[in-house]
């Protein structure tokens, strides 16, 4: 757990620790380090994890749609899927409406690997968010998700590749109820 008591922060003084521009990048950098370590056993690390999350929680989509959704270059997506497929974590099957298009599906091994990686990532999140109680963690996740979805909608740089906010897609229904609620 990362130790810091909010009572140590003098909010009235307006110090650097009260600035969102200081807190967000530091939190992101720490999460990136902890999260990358947590999913390091996953083929292709965080990107492999993102692909497995997307294909287990959303309707099947093509490789190209998946690349666009996750903000991954389509050529890199091919290599990424090749690695996941070589490990037996995903399969690519012809789309029912167009056999030229290949949909990406998780395998049972992919789902099991995702479950393990997700548990390890939650442990990393617990380290980062250790000073917050469970309700505060849920509130933080909810608020950050709302801000991120709104920020994506207001995005003005079409060349900036990043995961596209599409919460309506993550409703496949194959996850457990606890997977769908902030923790």
Question: What can be said about this structure in brief?
Answer:
The protein has a single domain (40-171), classed as Arc Repressor Mutant, subunit A. It is built from seven helices and two strands. It has helices at 20-38, 45-57, 63-70, 74-86, 108-128, 134-153, 177-180; strands at 90-94, 102-106.
Explain the overall architecture.
The chain is mostly helical. The chain has one domain: Arc Repressor Mutant, subunit A, CATH 1.10.10. It contains seven helices and two strands. A two-stranded antiparallel ribbon has the order 1-2. The longest helix is centred in the middle third of the chain and has 21 residues.
Task: Give the topology.
Blueprint lengths: L19 H19 L6 H13 L5 H8 L3 H13 L3 E5 L7 E5 L1 H21 L5 H20 L23 H4 L3
Antiparallel strand pairs: 1-2
Helix pairs in contact: 1-5, 2-5, 3-4
Q: What's the CATH topology label?
A: Arc Repressor Mutant, subunit A
Give the number of domains: 1
From the helix content, strand content and strand pairing, which structural class follows? mainly alpha
> Termini distance?
16 Å
What gross morphology would you assign?
globular
Going across the major beta sheet, what is the strand order? Answer: 1-2
Uncertain regions spanning at least 5 consecutive residues: 172-183
InterPro entries: HTH_MarR-typ, MarR/SlyA-like, Tscrpt_reg_MarR-type_CS, WH-like_DNA-bd_sf, WH_DNA-bd_sf
Protein name: MarR family transcriptional regulator
Keywords: DNA-binding, Transcription, Transcription regulation
Organism: Microbacterium aquilitoris
């Amino acid at each position: 757990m990362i130790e810091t008591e909010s009572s140590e922060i003098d909010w009235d003084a307006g110090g650097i620790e009260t600035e969102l521009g200081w807190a967000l990048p530091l939190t992101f950098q720490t999460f990136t380090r902890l999260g990358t370590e947590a999913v390091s056993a996953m083929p292709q690390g965080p990107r492999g994890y993102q692909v497995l999350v997307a294909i287990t929680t959303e309707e099947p989509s093509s490789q190209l749609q998946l690349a666009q959704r996750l903000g991954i270059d389509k050529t890199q997506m091919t290599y990424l899927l090749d690695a996941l497929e070589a490990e037996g974590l995903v399969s690519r099957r012809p789309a029912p409406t167009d056999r030229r298009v290949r949909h990406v599906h998780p395998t049972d091994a992919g789902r099991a690997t995702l479950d393990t990686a997700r548990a390890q990532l939650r442990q990393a999140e617990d380290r980062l968010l250790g000073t917050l109680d469970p309700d505060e963690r849920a509130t933080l996740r909810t608020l950050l998700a709302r801000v991120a979805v709104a920020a994506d909608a207001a995005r003005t740089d079409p060349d900036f590749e990043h995961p596209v906010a599409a919460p309506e897609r993550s409703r496949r229904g194959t996850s457990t109820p606890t997977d769908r609620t902030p923790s």
